[in-house]
Amino acid sequence: MTTTLELVPGLVTTRQAIAAAYGCGTFQGIEPADAAGKVFVYSDPAAGEEYGYTFDGRAEDDEFGPLYLYTGAGANGPQHPTGRNKALLHHIAQDRELHLFVAHGKASGSGAMRQRYIGQMVLDTIKPYDVRRALGKDEVMRNVLVFRLRPAEGTTPAWTEGDKVHAATKDSVEIIDPADVVGKPATVPTQDSTKVKKTEQHSTAETTANITAGQRKVLRREGELVTAFLAHLKAKGHQAHSFQFTVEGEPGSLTPDIYDATDHVLFEAKGQPTRINVRMAIGQLLDYRRRVPNRETLRTAVLLPSAPTPDVQTLLEELEIGLVYQTETGFTGWPLSP
């Protein structure tokens, strides 16, 4: 196989040309090219609009930088990290480059969809995907995997304003398992420095995308905290779930950490008991609570791995927001006072 197609961000081509150059398939959204050591991802944000939702597209930058969301493979029924999704999930461990394309209209004189090359990406090794609720082609609600892609170091992505996540067309509320909100970071090799081969237009053999151990530890701590508290609630006979709020006119969705359905309490967890983290949790709770059914009697609480400073505790008391934090023997502050 002779490669004649140079992958330069902004290139507009077709799946057929990519397949001829790199030896992959042409029909699926995730196409591994084993011999070439690559995985090609084809995103078409407009495809989901007929079902009233779409997660695909350039999301708002977060504290780790630019982010592109991509809904995994599987048209009906719950999606799982297997098959083609596994090829995307394990591209780092399998030493495969990840290349992102976005649908770019139909080619003149044919029904083939053109593809615009965004650039080489790398799966977020801290939180590789979120689990969201969405309709399948059979119009049955199910879980989907929304992968979180980052530009590989040395790549300047060729995305445009039109590539941003599309705004929702209506408000909606879906019940979601809080364990899915935490995510499954353990499915990706936990390495602090990920080697990523550069695209063909670069002369250097490889580069390094660094994600600090401190950032990883905080998010992992938050996930462990939520998992432990869910077990605590279950042991006490409480029913817990979470919500996925979609807001008309806004992209993406809002997902609180835990809703204790038995006590009608909404919890937001943070991996560190610092003031800035608590302030962020307060803002999230104030936003989320507006959308929870029977909000007039809803209570809210911040969930932390340890006690914050006395002044932060006073701040929560004055706002009538509960505080629950982990101890050596369990959790204190739970059950919350009426």
Please, what is the average pLDDT? 85
In what range is the share of β-strand residues? Answer: 25-35%
Going by CATH, the architecture of the largest domain would be Roll
Total beta-strand segments: 18
What does this molecule look like?
The protein is an alpha+beta fold. It folds into two domains: 12-164 and 198-210, PUA domain-like (Roll); 218-332, Trna Endonuclease, Chain: A, domain 1. 20% of the residues lie in helices and 33% in strands. It contains six helices and 18 strands. The chain has helices at 15-22, 83-89, 178-182, 213-235, 275-289, 310-318; strands spanning 12-14, 30-33, 38-43, 57-62, 65-71, 97-106, 113-123, 129-135, 141-151, 172-176, 193-197, 206-210, 240-246, 258-260, 265-269, 299-304, 322-327, 330-332. Strands 1, 2, 3, 4, 5, 6, 7, 8 and 9 form a nine-stranded mixed β-sheet that branches. It has a seven-stranded mixed β-sheet with strand order 10-13-14-15-16-17-18, with helices on both faces. A two-stranded antiparallel sheet has the order 11-12. Strand 2 (30-33) and strand 3 form a beta hairpin. 38% of the residues are buried. The model is unreliable at 184-211 (pLDDT under 50).
